[in-house]
Amino acid sequence: MSERITITETSVPGLPIGVKLRFDKQRDQWVILAPERLFVLDTIALEIVKRCDGKASVAEIVNDLAETFQAPRDVILKDVGALLQDLADKRILAA
Amino acid sequence: MSELGFPLAILAELTHRCPLQCPYCSNPLALEASSAELSTEQWKAVIKEAADLGVLQIHFSGGEPTARRDLEELIAASAAEGLYTNLITAGVLLNKERLAALAQAGLDHVQLSFQDSEAAGCDRIGNYKGGFEKKLDCARWVKEIGLPLTLNMVVHRQNLEHLEEMMALAERLEAQRVEIAHVQYYGWAYLNRASLMPTRAQLERATEIVEAARERLKGIMVIDYVVPDYYARRPKSCMGGWGRQFLNISPAGKVLPCHAAESITTLTFDRVSERSLRDIWENSEAFKAYRGSDWMPEPCRSCERKEIDWGGCRCQAFALTGEAGNVDPACAKSPLHAAMQALATSESGKEAQSFHYRTRKAGEQAAEKMPEPLG
């Protein structure tokens, strides 16, 4: 039986099989498609999720976002951690 | 209706053929013959049209969708359009090779039904001997192939005592998601209502079990729970409102606002072979009949919840009052609400009768056996 994922800075997040990131051109928005679920991503969530490629660690993703958006690392870490933990609990993120 | 968007997901009921005969099947009592089914090319045209209109997900259902030999082709056509594809199946017609072929064609997710947690109940409710063992095989193959698995479990008076075992089965089969859905009483389920209606105590216990499991399985298994409304105070927001978010295409190509809509015999439904999907969605009489709130009677019209529950369920209003535009008796503001609750209490206290199983013949003879409307 699988166990609940706990997101830490060393986690390497990615989208599992059966979960897809897609641009919805008719509605001009990015969405995650999952079993019987559809999540519309806002700009911030999209920046985070598109970096979840199954290669970069959470620490690396946070560093990249802090650099790109010139924002404090600790604030970004908190937001990223919370979002990824929520996605993992919904079973739409693997790590 | 300038804000009316096209649905994000559609339900494609490919066929009404099914090896199982569940007494709460969501198909209409009048089952379509295989000769009336849309062709492969017609379905592919519908898939293309739906994707162009902004549909993102397609659910292949039935009957039993794997009874269609062109399922691989329809999944591939959907995947080519970028649609997320979901297979809703009883699992008993599949073998591992076919499942692998469906996955190869681009299938994203499998929803597998179980009628009970053990063979005796499962095979009796579906009226299909050996079904339970085949479903276990199917679940194992889905995992071996690497597809995500949801178990669908419809619950009612005759299996609710096994709800904890049903959850345990889902855990054991490593489903990542489970749907526990209380029977909703239309069509076949309405015909079999007296044998299926849970007691209020069963319902309360079931809700406790689901809440405890959600806590225990957080991050491991997603649990969706659909409650029955005969004991409710407020109606459900059925389909998120008639003709607002959802459409269903029947095996013969009729476009429906929900899978039970054909039970409203005063409506006629347009077909994909005659009008475009967009035209049907936006302009057909059946979709316009109960869309929004202009059709509503009092007390719905002046209710502060009218754009929350959209007046509840039209099929239920039709079945229980004889008029689809009446107040859904599930609402405490309906004059028939007390009678509906009394009916649920009375029927759930009876000895279970034998089922009217879902067969073409039983469907043809159902009219004379249907329970009377209230009041």
**Biggest chain pair interface:** A-B, 24 and 30 residues
Strand order of the largest sheet of chain A: 1-2-3
Task: Provide the gyration radius of chain A in Å.
Answer: 13 Å
Mean pLDDT of chain B: 96
Order of helices and strands of chain B: EHEHEHEHHEHEHHHEEEHHHHH
3D architecture notes:
The complex is a heterodimer of chains A (95) and B (375). Chain A has helices spanning 43-49, 58-69, 73-89; strands spanning 20-24, 29-34, 37-41. With 95 residues, chain A is of the alpha+beta class. A 3-stranded antiparallel β-sheet of chain A has the order 1-2-3. In chain A, helix 2 crosses helix 3. Chain B has helices spanning 40-53, 71-80, 96-105, 119-126, 131-145, 163-172, 187-191, 193-196, 200-216, 277-283, 285-289, 314-321, 337-348, 360-364, and strands at residues 9-13, 57-61, 84-89, 109-114, 149-155, 177-182, 222-226, 246-249, 255-256. The longest helix of chain B has 17 residues, at 200-216. In chain B, strand 8 and strand 9 (255-256) form a beta hairpin. Chain B has a 9-stranded mixed β-sheet with strand order 7-6-5-4-3-2-1-8-9. Chain B is an alpha/beta fold and 375 residues long. The chains are: A alpha+beta (95), B alpha/beta (375). Chains A and B meet through strand 1 and strand 2 of A and loops of B.
